[in-house]
Automatic annotation (TrEMBL):
PROSITE patterns recorded: HTH_GNTR
SMART domains found in the cross-reference section: FCD, HTH_GNTR
Record's keyword annotation contains Transcription: yes
Protein name: DNA-binding GntR family transcriptional regulator
The HTH gntR-type domain, residue ranges: 15-82
Pfam families attached to this UniProt entry: FCD (PF07729), GntR (PF00392)
Length: 227
């Protein structure tokens, strides 16, 4: 009988086994525990995770779609290498999607409307005050997800989800960001969206992503290959 303990399956987990295996391998790649250029073979992964090869094969197909691996017939899957060109492309897509999400969120909410972003800001501030970086990272991720949800555009949300893993992979290569600076940026964006002014919300989101791109690329240029 196939077991799932090795991939951390929880009782009541809504994700399928291939999705959970995909999540597990993705996290190993993001954490550089599976290095770029290394080979992943179905049989080895199945033995390591104590599952059959079929869900592993499905998980690798998902990871190829996300850009984390490249499937090579009769050889297996090679862990992809994040390049400077891809980093720039990710910022281009973030700019297009997140700026539009902020604009739509402000338009839908209207001035003075209560927003769940305020609760998420409070969670992030409490985590920062407690020095809990894990909780802070989770609260910050939830903040960005909520902005997308508030846009009311499920296609936009889906497109952003498709690159979310690679964006995390990119930022994991950067030094830890200052919690106070992160909170200030989120507070600025939260206030702009809550104002109900779509143009202001879009301008704030654009400025923040532009600054993030400049700072990130300064660090990434010596680390990543051209491509």
């Amino acid at each position: 009988m196939e077991t799932t303990a090795a991939v951390g399956v929880r009782t009541g987990e809504l994700k399928s086994l291939p999705e959970q295996i995909c999540d597990h391998i993705r996290e190993l790649i993001i954490a550089d525990e599976l290095e770029p250029g290394s080979w992943l073979r179905e049989r080895d992964l199945a033995q390591r995770l104590d599952v059959s090869r079929i869900p592993v094969r499905e998980a690798l197909l998902m990871l190829e779609t996300e850009g984390f691996v490249r499937l090579v017939p009769r050889r297996g899957a090679m862990v992809s290498t994040l390049t400077l060109a891809e980093a720039e492309n990710l910022f281009d897509v973030r700019e297009a999607l997140e700026v539009q999400a902020a604009k739509l969120a402000a338009r839908r909410l209207g001035a003075g409307a209560q927003t769940p972003l305020l609760d998420l800001m409070a969670r992030a501030e409490a985590a920062a005050e407690a020095g809990d970086r894990v909780a802070l990272e989770a609260a910050n991720a939830a903040f960005h997800h909520e902005v997308l949800a508030l846009s009311g555009n499920p296609i936009l949300e889906s497109l952003m989800r498709s690159i979310a893993g690679r964006v995390r992979w990119l930022f994991r290569k950067l030094p830890s960001r200052d919690p106070a600076s992160q909170l200030a940026k989120h507070r600025e964006l939260c206030d702009a969206i809550a104002s109900g002014n779509p143009d202001l919300a879009a301008a704030v989101a654009f400025a923040q992503i532009s600054r993030s791109r400049i700072n990130a690329m300064k660090v990434l240029r010596p680390l990543l290959k051209d491509g």
